[in-house]
Amino acid sequence: MASFMIKVAGEGLVAPAHRLADSGPTTGYAIIYEVQNVPEGVPVEAVVQAFKGFQAPKDRYEVDYGELTAVG
């Protein structure tokens, strides 16, 4: 299983973050989320696309890939 770092900017842009980024709020208006348990072979672009339709939690910054795919 893989994990990807996803950045959600204050204006709503969702994009891959640097793999060494720390999860949580940044010094700007972005929040970095770590998407864990991504199956091998799933590209980061697919994770970003799934995250765009996901209501990200405000109290934690680690999200399981299963939560993204359960959104429908």
Automatic annotation (TrEMBL):
Name recorded for this polypeptide: Uncharacterized protein
Organism placement in taxonomy: Bacteria, Pseudomonadati, Pseudomonadota, Alphaproteobacteria, Rhodospirillales
Organism expressing this protein natively: Telmatospirillum siberiense
